[in-house]
Specification:
Strand content: 15-25%
Pfam families: RVT_1
CATH class of the largest domain: Alpha Beta
InterPro entries: DNA/RNA_pol_sf, Rev_trsase/Diguanyl_cyclase, RT_dom, Znf_C2H2_type
Number of helices: 28
GO molecular function: zinc ion binding
Largest sheet: 8 strands, mixed
Helix content: 25-40%
Number of strands: 29
Organism: Symbiodinium pilosum
Mean pLDDT: 76
Shape: globular
Structural class: alpha+beta
Radius of gyration: 37 Å
Oligomer: single chain
CATH superfamily of the largest domain: Endonuclease/exonuclease/phosphatase
Low-confidence stretches: 1-22, 25-49, 837-944
Protein name: RXLR78 protein
Length: 944
């Protein structure tokens, strides 16, 4: 509600409104003492006050949640509060008067600056927040929304107000049903210069009945003046906002399913596309595939059942409620109607459950994990998903324009940090259509595509049909820029786990490319593969290269950890060994430095990559293709429906198939430079790389080895800086363990202490003898590529870590099944059996010592399935006790009574089987559990 300054009370119909408890006032007149009575005191305006605005709030609003800000002193006031559980923003605006005492230029300047401030304030209001803008705009405009607008002559800047209303999709409430719409009277003339604006979702119902209160006279000492405007605006909760519209033009899920199956309809679509090929441009291929998907897989209209007719029930309920002495016959009829309605609701629930169980049977019959987890998602209870909600310095959610501006600046600072690539020279190579089709077919049907692209399943289905046209187009491209469909990508910013998604630095950027662009990049990668393998042959980088994998990186580090553990274990000989002549070494141990890069693919230098490509291939056309795929490419950023573009000059697109090979090439060049300084033997023996994770690990046998390891670590860090790569200091750690006579002095020499933000003391390891050298966090255990690396029993630590992760996943499956009230126990058991992954899926055996595994007959909390039946196996308490006793562990007593998904035999059954006797009868606690024979599996081992 907006009223002018007053002394006294308003009309009765206004005071009795329960929801209309907020007032906005403006225009203090000089020389008049104005006093407002409040619930907790008085607010007085000084006689010297010439103008100003104020907002009065109802005492029912929590004062602890009220925030205010004055955008323009005396002209624009913003108040934020929470009403009925909904965030609310009230803006009280008072425009400058078009004064004859000022020049037209000065009038326009004052009024335009006010509208700019109002525009910024409205833009910063989040879409889920209720909004009311009330005040004197002093700009009569006949083009505002409603039919009840005065026909006064508009001001010269009325178009600015109209543009503000149309830009933010506001609705002027007091322009609809008012019989006398004018809000201001002066010398017999009437005008409508006071408005109450709100958002479109809030403008329905009673809100459009907003009208001036002409019977409430304000400023009776004046001949004319303003009339207050009354508006009943209902707060709008986020659950009442309109759902996001489905913009898809075809049934994508059905298309994906039939492409996987190879159905007849998918084959007909492929024949339809083949009949329209070839074409001249890749964009035409995209248009044809989009049209084919819309034709053969049209958007399915949501089949909705006829709603239950409950009008009679509610009519009876109103009659019974309004009658002081209801008729018993009416009461009986109401109860019968309610019971009939309940039966209809139950029947609808049974029909939905039966339809869902048909999908469950199909998923179990197919045995497909993709279909099974899609079914499980429907059972999963609702959980709020973390979304990017950027905030400004004041802690407020950003509007559309401000969010686009911040995201654009963030993207430009990262992806536009370097100088752009020079213009390309030379032609592109001829790509074999079969090679291009191979890489387009390799794209999974459910992969995301940028806006305006045909579904990935359509590209996968028609890869052989479209690849000749794309190959022919690339052969005709000279030195001009490739089309945007093959270059540009939609930048998707997803929240990083464990970090608030309120600023761009806490978001992980992912580039979404069109499938044909991925196919061209994949073909270029395959052409570069022979030269890359030859270039990286002597480089200890084990990611993205054929014949190398994660197990190789694990084996190198595990061999070092076991070697150090064995040396430190034998460094303290016993009394008998000392008598036999054994000597205690001066210094033995190990040092491991784990390094992680921050935004590795986003900060690499394109110029350096292009300059290194001639070392891989002698074909200049292939180098020109890689150059063309990155030259003047752009990222498209979207925020709340608005889109902006940022041209990129730095980094490689993470969604591109060529990105892994290019990043491996850059790390290979870095390691080769280290080899030139330290020698091939040292670098290849003590440095291990896997993608952006680098590890320096060296076995120490003297103080000289410590200094040499420190020198290599410093060289790695400096080389990364030279290549414009950034180290993530929060993920750089040191593992150190020493034994021998000099162990204590060496440890003391390189140890440093500091305090973190919480004031806790943390231990650091200094890479040098003085304080001028950097110090890194010294920890007992680090997580390296999925294993727990330490100089202690890291095998058992890794096993415990992975089992706990597997238990969490299975626990989530159990919660999802338990939340499905309409799902029978038998179907819940079938789904759980299907989703119960074997233990080898978690790669638990690949890091264990074979000698230790020979003694482990029973694995605790290890989810597995039997090969014959595929059903989960339950372990008894004896299996747990045998595992604990063999490992020498001491567990809490409650653990002994916990039954989990495990394979194994009890110790009693093994003993009875060995002596050919009948096993003893199970105890009462074991009657409901079964121990089945364990499935023996081989264990991978690595050389020590």
């Amino acid at each position: 509600m907006k009223v002018a300054p007053f002394t006294g009370e308003g009309p009765s119909h206004c005071r009795n409104q329960g929801e209309a408890g907020n007032f906005g006032l403006f225009e203090y007149f000089p020389g008049i003492q104005v006093i407002w009575g409040l619930s907790n005191g008085e607010a007085t305006a000084a006689p010297s006050k010439a103008d100003g605005v104020v907002v009065l709030l109802s005492p029912r609003i929590d004062s602890g949640q009220i925030r205010w800000r004055e955008h323009r002193v005396g002209r624009l006031l913003e108040v934020r509060f929470v009403h009925a559980g909904c965030p609310f923003v009230a803006l009280n605006a008072y425009q400058h008067v078009w004064s004859s005492a000022k020049t037209p230029q000065q009038n326009r300047k004052d009024r335009s600056s006010f509208l700019a401030s109002l525009n910024k304030a409205v833009r910063q209001v989040p879409s889920r927040t209720s909004l009311v803008v009330a005040g004197a705009t002093l700009s009569p405009s006949p083009r505002l929304v409603g039919p009840r607008t005065c026909g006064a002559a508009p001001r010269p800047d009325s178009e600015s107000l109209q543009e503000l209303v149309e830009t933010h999709k506001l609705v002027a409430l007091n322009t609809w049903h008012a019989a006398i719409p004018h809000t201001h009277t002066q010398q017999g003339s009437h005008s409508q210069i006071d408005f109450v604006f709100t958002k479109e979702p809030q403008a329905g119902g009673q809100a459009k009945r907003s009208a001036p209160l002409h019977d409430w006279h304000l400023g009776s000492w004046k001949v004319g003046g303003h009339s207050p405007v009354f508006a009943a605006v209902k707060p709008l909760g986020h659950w009442q906002l309109p759902l996001r519209k489905d913009v898809s033009t075809c049934d994508v899920k059905q298309l994906q399913a039939e492409v996987r199956e190879g159905s007849d309809r998918a084959k007909q679509m492929r024949d339809w596309v083949r009949a329209r090929m070839p074409v001249q441009h890749p964009d035409q291929c995209n248009q044809i595939l989009t049209a084919a998907a819309e034709l053969f897989f049209p958007r399915r209209v949501r089949s909705s059942q006829r709603p239950l007719d409950s009008r009679r029930m509610w009519q009876l309920a109103r009659e019974v409620k309004s009658s002081p002495n209801p008729d018993p016959a009416r009461l009986a009829e109401l109860e019968a109607s309610q019971e009939q309605h309940r039966q209809q609701v139950r029947q609808r629930q049974k029909e939905r459950a039966a339809k869902f169980l048909e999908g469950v049977d199909e998923a179990i019959a197919e045995g497909s994990s993709h279909v099974a987890y899609s079914t499980l998602k429907q059972l999963r209870p609702w959980q709020p998903q973390q979304r990017a909600q950027l905030k400004n310095r004041d802690g407020r959610l950003m509007g559309v324009a401000e969010e686009l501006e911040v995201l654009g600046e963030f993207a430009s600072s990262i992806f536009g940090a370097h100088a752009p690539l020079p213009d390309r020279t030379g032609s592109l190579p001829h790509l074999d259509p079969q090679l291009l089709a191979k890489h387009i077919r390799s794209i999974k049907p459910h992969k995301a595509v940028p806006k305006g692209s045909a579904p990935a399943a359509a590209w996968k289905l028609c890869a052989n049909e479209v690849s000749p046209s794309i190959s022919a187009f690339l052969a005709t491209v000279g030195e001009e820029r490739l089309p945007s469909g093959l270059l540009d990508a939609d930048l998707c910013l997803i929240p990083k786990p464990g970090k608030p998604a309120d600023k761009p630095s806490n978001l992980r950027p992912l580039g979404i490319l069109r499938p044909d662009a991925k196919g061209v990049a994949g073909a270029a990668r395959e052409l570069l593969s022979p030269g890359l393998q030859s270039y990286m042959r002597e480089v200890p980088q084990f990611a993205y290269l054929p014949g190398r994998g994660l197990s190789d990186a694990h084996a190198r580090l595990i061999r070092h950890l076991r070697e150090v553990r064995q040396l430190c274990g034998t460094a303290s000989p016993g009394r008998q060994e000392l008598r036999e002549g054994a000597l205690r070494p001066d210094l033995v141990g190990g040092l491991t430095f784990a390094l992680d890069l921050s935004q590795a693919c986003d900060t690499v230098s394109r110029q350096e990559i292009i300059a290194t490509l001639p070392a891989l291939t002698d074909d200049p056309a292939l180098v020109s293709l890689v150059h063309a795929l990155h030259h003047r490419s752009a990222y498209k950023l979207a925020a709340q429906g608005e889109v902006t573009e940022v041209e990129t000059t730095t980094g490689i697109k993470q969604g591109c198939k060529l990105a892994p090979s290019l990043f491996s090439l850059l790390t290979g060049k870095l390691i080769k430079e280290l080899i030139e300084v330290f020698g091939e033997d040292r670098v290849c023996a003590f440095l291990t790389g896997y993608a952006d994770d680098l590890t320096v690990h060296r076995t120490i046998r003297s103080v000289v080895d410590v200094e040499a390891c420190h020198a290599l670590i410093r060289a790695v860090v400096e080389s990364l800086k030279d290549h414009k790569l950034v180290c993530n200091q929060s993920k750089c750690f040191i593992l150190a363990k020493f034994a021998g006579r000099q162990a204590a002095s060496v440890t003391k020499q390189y140890t440093a202490w500091t305090r973190n933000e919480a004031g806790e003391r943390i231990k650091l390891w200094r890479i040098g003898k003085t304080k001028h050298f950097p110090a890194l966090r010294w920890v007992p255990t680090i997580k390296f590529l999925g294993i727990k690396a330490s100089y202690g029993p890291f095998e058992m630590q890794t096993l415990t870590f992975r089992i706990s992760e597997a238990k969490q996943k299975l626990h989530q499956v159990g919660l999802s099944l338990e939340s499905a009230k309409s799902l029978k126990a038998w179907y819940a058991f079938k789904i759980r059996s299907l989703l119960n992954k074997p233990a080898h899926l978690y790669d638990l055996y690949s890091i264990e010592d074979p000698e230790q595994l020979a003694n482990l007959r029973q694995f605790k909390h290890l989810p597995e399935t039997e090969a014959a039946e595929g059903t989960p196996v339950i372990s008894c308490q004896d299996c747990d006790r045998s595992f604990v006793s063999e490992q020498g562990l001491r567990l809490h007593r409650s653990v002994h009574y916990y039954c989990s998904l495990v394979i194994g035999k009890s110790a009693q059954q093994e003993k009875a089987a060995a002596s050919n006797q009948e096993p003893p009868a199970p105890s009462r606690r074991q009657e409901n559990t079964s121990c089945r024979p364990a499935v023996r599996q081989g264990f991978a081992s690595y050389p020590a």
